[in-house]
Each structure stands twice: as C-alpha cells, then as structure tokens.
Amino acid sequence: MKKTIYPKLFIGYLLFGILGFIIVSTITSHLLFDYVQSKEASNLYKEANLIASDYAFSYYSNAISLTDFEQRLEALDTYLSAQIWVVGRDGDILVNSRKKSDLFPIESIPDFNISDFNHQYYRTGFFYNYFDTEQISVYAPISVNYKIRGYIIIHKPMHTLVSYHNGLLKITYFTFIILFLCAFVLLAIFTYMIILPIKKIARTASEYAAGKFEHPVDIHTNDEIGYLAASLTYMADELNTLEEDQRKFVSNVSHDFRSPLTSIKGYVEAMLDGTIPTENQEKYLNIILFETERLNKLTMGLLELNKYDSRGTFLDISTFDINNTIKMTVQTFEGICKDKRISFELILTGQTLFTRADMGKIQRVIYNLIDNAIKFSPSDSVITIETMMKNEKIFVTIKDRGIGIPKESLGKIWERFYKTDSSRGKDKKGTGLGLAIVKEIIQSHKENINVISTEGVGTEFIFTLPLYQPEDE
Ligand code: ATP
Ligand code: MG
C-alpha cells in the first residue's frame, strides 16, 4: 500500500499534544509555583514589616500593652491565615498569635540564627523542625532606636500555596486543551486545503508518467498549489504535442524516404530481370540518379536541422555587407534563371549595408528563399529582392510573382516536410525542409521572418537582420 502523509501528520499532532502536556506539567507548573511562592512571600514580608514598624515598635516603646499587641496579632493572623511570632534575637518566642501563655518566653527555638535566612526575606521548610508540615516563613527585624530588638516571623503552611498553584495550573491545562482542539481544526483545514490537492496532483502526475495526458489537473485555486497544478497541466499539454509532433515527424521521414527507395528498387529490379531492355537503361538510371540526389538532399537537410535542434546553435558572427551577399547568391542561380527566363530586380539600400550575423547561414536563408521563388514562379517572371533600413534593423524582402501559397497553408509552411498540394505535383525533388531551416537560422539570430502571399499573385518573404553602424564601436 502507498504510504500517505496522514499518519505522519497525526503522529505530529499527537506528539504536539504529549509534548505540550509534559511542558505544562513540568516547566509551566514549576514556573507558576515559583511565581506563587515569591508573590506570597513578598505579601507576607510587607505585612511583617508593617507589624515590625508599627505594632511591635509601639509595644517596645511601651505605647501599647502586651495584651493589646497580642490581640492585634491574633486579628492579623485570622486575616492572613498565617501564624505570627515575635522572636527575640536569641530565638525566644516572645509572642505567638496561636499560643496564649503566661510563660515568658513561651518557647525557645534552639539553634535559631537569623543568618540562616541567607540574606533572603523568606525561606521554606519546617523551621528548625518546629512544624510538622512545610511552611513558608518570612521575617522582618524590629528596630527600636536603631537597635534590632527582635524579629517578626510569619509562617504560612505551604499547602495553602499548593492549592492556589493547582488552581492556576488547572486554568493552564484548560487553555492547553482548547489550543489542542484548535490545532485539530487547523489540521483539518490544512488537510482539506493542501493535502487533498497534493494527492490529486500526485495522482494526475502518475497518469502523465504513464503517458496518459488526457486529464488536466482539476485545481483552480489562486495560490502556489493552483500554480503547480496549472504548470503540470501545461507541461502535459506540451509533452502531448511533442509526442504528436514526433509521431508526425517519424511518419513524414519514413514516407519521404520510402517513395524514392521504392522507385529505385523497382527500376533496379526491372533492369536486372530484363524487363527494361539495356538500350532503355540510361533513362531509368537517370531517374535513379535523380531519386538518389533527392535522398541525399533529404539526409543533408535532416542533418542540418538536427544541428539547430540541439539548442545553443553555434553562430559564427561577423560583420558583412548584406547587399554584396545577396548579389553573390543571386549569381549562383544564373544558370537556372537563364533556362526559365527569370530575371532579378535588386533594390538595395546604399552602396553597402553592413550587418552582424553568421554570413554562411544568412547566405543559406537567401539561397533557400530564392530557390523557392524560382521554383514556384512561371517562366518570364521577375523576382524582386530589396533591402531596407528601419529602426536599427535591416529588412530583406524576396518577392516573386508565382503561384502563391493558399491561405490555409500559410501557417504550416515552416513545418518540417510541409509542402502545399500544388507544389507536390510541381516540385518532386523538394523535401519541405528548406523553410524549416530558414526559420531555425533566423530564430537563432533572435530575428524575425514573415510571409505575405496571395494565391495566383505571388509571395513575399521578409526577414530582419541587425544593422551594423560603425559608430557602435
Ligand atoms: P526544398 O526547400 O527542400 O527544396 P520545398 O521548397 O518544397 O523543399 P520549403 O522550402 O520548406 O520546401 O517550402 C515549403 C513549401 O512552402 C513549399 O513546398 C511550397 O509549397 C511552399 N512555398 C514556399 N515558398 C514558396 C513560394 N515562394 N511560392 C509558393 N509556395 C511556396
Ligand atoms: Mg525550398
């Protein structure tokens, strides 16, 4: 079974709960207890100081009687729920709010030493084992005439603090439980908004991996997940068309190779078995030669295109005069033009017009375009080649007055192997690769090429080149 993310999330959630519980019951509880204890100590300390500076001072200055003093301490005892002592410097308990006695001192704390408080105003414990239960004990000195006469010591049982602390801890636990439940709601929302879409994406992605590109990812949110889904769908579309293109390409190549090979095979067999008599063989050998040339051209074209396909085509950039390149290329067609009685009209801007590009490849572009123009022009027609300068660009136009390209074919002529139906009848040697090569070359120069054509009127190809101005340097 496929592992899903749910158990991991759930374990994470439980861990959060357990860890939270442990933290609350240890660290938070400890901190809370410290807080409660120091708060209580400081409250008792204030009281002790008050008693020391007020009642005790009055008693030691003989302003109030012992009975009065004792009564006041008793009242305070009830109010604070704490035992209040007046202790002499040597540990004699002189007054105890819980113990009325005629004895003087009432009791004595052996080993009493105020420095046991360690410079703190309170301490916890059994106070020299006087108590059976743990107490928090706070002291304040009674000073009369700058002399310490004794101490006020207040004891409060620790269990009163513990119950207060437990109350606070309960509130903390309750808050944590609410948080824990909120986290569950968040987890549910997170699952709904992220995990479910991711699952959907993963399912569709594995379909794509299996070569099934039919279903788009059905998520349309305007966030990262939606973006991921849209990218995946786009990728699937691209892969689909790529696969389609590849199939078309292979079937085109096979077709274009098969027809000449079939005819070569047929003629050779016919010559071998004597169907074609020896005296007629020259005619058929010429056909074989023609077909072989076509196969050769096809192979060369494919090889050349393959070179452009492998990205980052190496361009041998140099500065050259495009007018001159056009003139030179036109010259190579002189022979064919004479036969077809086709003439050229060159409308070239300036004496020279410099560009920076790969000269060999641009020559190939011009050659392919002129080749097409001648091929699809009737005898006695004129082919116009024009160069123009506009916005730091050179525009090269090659215009014929030939058969033109049907509207529905205009978008397809750049595809490999594409030939219009009319040209299939006329030009048997054509491979349909010429314009694909032209387009690749112009694109690798990051320039543009366009075509305007009207069937029966003529065709015009226009491409751009960068204008080279010497002051650029
Ligand atoms: P190859 O260039 O290998 O000889 P091709 O000329 O048939 O083959 P492309 O140059 O790619 O192939 O041209 C593709 C098709 O576009 C042509 O077969 C033709 O149908 C159409 N085409 C191209 N240029 C012209 C033109 N100047 N006039 C009319 N049709 C054209
Ligand atoms: Mg061509």
Walk me through the structure:
This protein is α+β, with helices and mostly antiparallel strands and about 475 residues long. About 55% of the residues lie in helices and about 20% in strands. It contains ten helices and 13 strands. It has a six-stranded antiparallel sheet. A five-stranded mixed sheet has the order 8-10-11-13-12. Helix 1 packs antiparallel against helix 2. The model has no long low-confidence stretch (mean pLDDT about 90). Bound molecules: adenosine-5'-triphosphate and magnesium ion (MG). The site of adenosine-5'-triphosphate has 24 residues, from helix 8 and helix 10.
How much of the sequence lies in strands comes to 15-25%
Please bin the fraction of helical residues.
40-55%
Order of helices and strands: HHEEEEEEHHHEHHEEHEEHHEE
What ligand molecules are bound, each kind once? adenosine-5'-triphosphate, magnesium ion
Largest sheet: 6 strands, antiparallel
Taking Cα atoms only, what radius of gyration do you get, to the nearest Å? 52 Å
**Strands ordered across the widest β-sheet:** 3-2-1-6-5-4
Task: Pick out the low-confidence regions.
Answer: none
Roughly how many Å apart are the termini?
68 Å
Mean pLDDT: 90
The count of helical stretches stands at 10
Give the strand tally: 13
Please state the structural category: alpha+beta
Name the overall outline: rod-shaped
